[in-house]
C-alpha cells in the first residue's frame, strides 16, 4: 500500500515512510491510496478471533510492503499483551439498545494507548532497519503525553521530549508522565499555557537549525498509523454484535476527529455501519460543520472533558479529501482559505457525503453530568466525562430501536474523579496496576517558556538523526 497527501503535492510514501514522517511535506496528511475492502464472508470469518489476531488481519492490507503478516502479528501480540483485560477492548451492555466499548484498559487508562502502544513498536521496528534516530517532540494537556511516553520509554533510537504547562495538568496525569524514569524520556514543565507549549513545538518543526541535525517526529493523530490501529476495535465491536449480518451505530466522543475517522475507515472497508455519531462538548466546531456546513474556529472553552476542548480538528481534512473526490489541489485551496480566515464552508459534495454516514450532537455541562448519573443510577456503571458526551449523543440520536448503539468509552473514570464524584457521589479508585503512582519518584525539568532554552535542552539531550 502506498500513501498520498491530502494536499496533492508531497511524494507518495510506503507505510514505513508515512509512519516516520507524520505530517506530509506539503502540509497535508497521509491517507492510503485506496481503501482495502473485505467481503461479507471474509468479515464473518473473523468472528471470535483473539484481539491481536483480528488486529493483524484488519491492518495487514495497510502495512503490506513494509511488514510481513507474521511480523505484524508478533507486534500486535506484544502491544495488546500489555492490556489489563484479555479482550483488550471489552464491550458492555447498558440497556436494550445502548452499549459501551471500554477502550481504557491500557497502561495509561485512555484510549490513546490502543494506538500508541503499537506505534512505539513500529518506530522501533523501522528505525532498527537503518542507522537513523528519531526525536519525538510533543506538547500535551495530559492524555497524549502519558500514552506516548509509556509507548516509547526504553525503546532504542527514539528520544521523547514532552512539554506540559506547569501546574495545569492533573496530579494523576503529571505523575503518569514524570514517574517514567527511562533515560530516553524527557518531561519538560514550562511556565505558560498548553497553547504556548504547542507553539514551541510547531516552531521546532520549522527550525532548520534543529531539523538539519535531528529527525523530529510526531505522535499525535496526524500520524496515519494511529488511526489504522483504531479501525480494529470498530470491527471487534461490530463482530460481537452480529456483523456482517447486522448493522451497528457508533457514538464517538470527538476532539481532533481521529477516533471517529477510524470508524469511517471501518465502514469503507466493509463493516456495515448504520451511523457514526460525532459527539462534541461545547467546543462544537464539528457539530456546526456537520449540521450546517460551517467549519469556523471559535475560542476554546475549558470543560470537564479537556481532551475534547479543541477548536481545529486536524483529521477532518482526511474526511473532506475523501468526500471531495480526492482532489488534492482543490483541498489545498480550501485549507489555505481556512488557515487565512479561520472559517470555511463545506462544498455540497462534502455535505451530502457526510450526511449519509454521520450525525452529530453537542453536550453541555449539565447534559454531561446527567449522562454520568444515568449510567450510574440505571446501569451501575461509572463513566468519565468524555464518554458521557458520547452516551448523551447516543441516547438522543434517534437510532432505530432494532440497531445497537455503541458508545466509545475513551477514558477510565478514575482519570477524572472529581467530575464523576460531582455527578454521582461516587469516587472511582485508580486500578491496582497504577496504584502506587503516588509513591513513585518523579523526574521532570522546569524551563521558562522561552524557545531558545527549550531548543537548547532538546539539542543537548537528543541523538542526531544519523
Ligand atoms: C484524545 C481524546 C478524545 C478525542 O479523540 P480524537 O481522536 O482527538 O477525536 C476523547 N476522549 C479522550 C479521553 C481522549 O483522550
From TrEMBL:
It is an enzyme of class 4 (lyase). Keywords: Amino-acid biosynthesis, Lyase, Pyridoxal phosphate, Threonine biosynthesis. It comes from the Bacteria. Residues 3-80 form the Threonine synthase N-terminal domain. Its cofactor is pyridoxal 5'-phosphate. Pathway: Amino-acid biosynthesis; L-threonine biosynthesis; L-threonine from L-aspartate: step 5/5. PROSITE patterns: DEHYDRATASE_SER_THR (PS00165). Belongs to the threonine synthase family. This is Threonine synthase. It comes from Novosphingobium clariflavum.
